């Protein structure tokens, strides 16, 4: 079977300006993923032992898993020196690498080191999401402008899902491939080549508890999902884990739509453009799906802030298009 390292090396030739740096960076992300996976698997035990939030025997504060994951990925990316700056959910400002090697790194990364982290205690799959761009500045430490790029300019993106098995799924703009971690040898193996959304699709994933705050278009789309129409496979079925990575991963394999809309309370929704929506949107499009705010393509948005939020509709193309129809039809501007 093909390993992640072999696969990435083979694909290097698909890049016009390939120097091996992106290959190295993806491999380093794979290594950090294995370290995080090890800690995620120990989470239950650590809890029983009462470790987190307390001091360990050396007097060090035990790290929460999302802080641990953040440090792990930041360190892994420092090592190879390909990355000059990182925007992370866990850091208010952009994180810049000040060492000389990293300053000459060609890439910047946006990441959510641990997505769905509120699910750790209950043993529900969680994930890591990453998005990679070429830097815009020519030298020195990376800057904000390097990170505030449109999603369509991503050179690579992916996620790791720490679930019943651990998988790394990524794209460099030439389709989507998934690798499963074989724990006995500690290697990611190509298990899901050329992933695409299946035809059809009948899953809708949305936190319906927020129903009363949804815009009319979202409410009407939910009603549409619940109607009886065997010809279009309705009523659809609801699946909502509350971990974007897990919800998206399931919908990619089974066919479905994930929605985190804007609400009257939070018009921009909850999910962050740079390190949640853009990478997942890039993967979705590469797998034949679609991602939008309900009105416009996610990958076309020019970000203005690293932690900016946007409404998010992502999944099987025809399902996202149908939801967009409802959003347009019931938009307040049409009244
Ligand atoms: P994070 O743990 O990185 O803050 O992200 C959680 C996100 C996302 O993974 C999930 O789909 C969404 O929050 C769930 O939100 P609700 O609990 O509001 O449904
Ligand atoms: Mn998240
Ligand atoms: Mn997170």
Question: How does this model look, in words?
Answer:
With 335 residues, the protein is of the alpha+beta class. It folds into 2 domains: 4-192, 2-Layer Sandwich (Fructose-1,6-Bisphosphatase, Chain A, domain 1), CATH 3.30.540; 203-334, 3-Layer(aba) Sandwich (D-Maltodextrin-Binding Protein, domain 2), CATH 3.40.190.80. The chain has helices at 4-11, 21-48, 65-80, 100-103, 144-147, 216-226, 244-254, 273-286, 317-329; strands at residues 83-88, 95-96, 107-115, 126-134, 156-162, 166-171, 176-182, 187-192, 203-205, 237-238, 256-260, 290-292, 312-315. An 8-stranded mixed sheet has the order 2-1-3-4-5-6-7-8, sandwiched between helices. Strands 10-9-11-13-12 form a 5-stranded mixed sheet, with helices on both faces. Helix 1 (4-11) packs antiparallel against helix 2 (21-48), helix 2 runs antiparallel to helix 3 (65-80) and helix 6 crosses helix 9. It starts with a helix and ends in a 6-residue tail after the last helix. The mean pLDDT is 92. The structure holds 2,5-anhydro-1,6-di-O-phosphono-D-glucitol and manganese (II) ion (2 copies).
Descriptive terms for the model:
single chain, 335 residues, alpha+beta, Fructose-1,6-Bisphosphatase, Chain A, domain 1, D-Maltodextrin-Binding Protein, domain 2, 2 domains, 8-stranded mixed β-sheet, 5-stranded mixed β-sheet, 9 helices, globular, binds 2,5-anhydro-1,6-di-O-phosphono-D-glucitol, binds manganese (II) ion
């Amino acid at each position: 079977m093909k390993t992640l390292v072999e696969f990435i090396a083979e694909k290097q030739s698909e890049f016009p300006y390939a120097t091996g740096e992106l290959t190295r960076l993806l491999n380093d992300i794979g290594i950090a993923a294995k370290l995080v996976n090890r800690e995620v698997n120990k989470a239950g035990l650590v809890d029983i032992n009462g470790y987190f939030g307390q001091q360990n025997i050396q007097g060090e504060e035990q790290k929460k898993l999302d802080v641990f994951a953040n440090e792990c990925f930041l360190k892994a990316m420092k090592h190879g020196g390909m990355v000059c700056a990182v925007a992370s959910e866990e850091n208010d400002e952009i994180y810049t690498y000040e060492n000389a090697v990293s300053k000459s790194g060609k890439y910047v990364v946006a990441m959510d080191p641990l997505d769905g982290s509120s699910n750790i205690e209950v043993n529900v799959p969680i994930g890591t999401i990453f998005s990679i761009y070429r830097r815009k500045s020519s030298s020195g430490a990376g800057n904000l402008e390097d990170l505030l790029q449109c999603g369509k300019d991503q050179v690579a993106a992916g996620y790791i899902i720490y679930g019943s098995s651990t998988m790394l799924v990524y794209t460099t703009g030439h389709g989507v491939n998934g690798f499963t971690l074989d724990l006995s040898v500690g290697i990611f193996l190509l298990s899901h080549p050329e992933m695409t959304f299946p035809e059809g699709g009948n899953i809708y994933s949305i936190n319906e508890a927020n129903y009363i705050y949804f815009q009319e278009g979202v409410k009407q789309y939910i009603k549409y999902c619940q109607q009886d129409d065997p010809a279009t496979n309705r009523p659809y079925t609801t699946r909502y884990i509350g971990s974007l990575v897990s919800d998206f991963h399931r919908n990619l394999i089974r066919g479905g739509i994930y929605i985190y809309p804007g609400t009257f309370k939070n018009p921009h929704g909850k999910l962050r453009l740079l390190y949640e929506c853009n990478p997942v949107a890039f993967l979705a499009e590469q797998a034949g799906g679609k991602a939008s705010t309900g009105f416009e393509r996610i990958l076309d948005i020019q970000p203005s802030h690293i932690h900016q939020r946007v409404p998010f509709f992502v999944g099987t193309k025809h399902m996202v298009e149908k939801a967009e129809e409802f959003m347009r039809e019931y938009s307040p501007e049409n009244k």
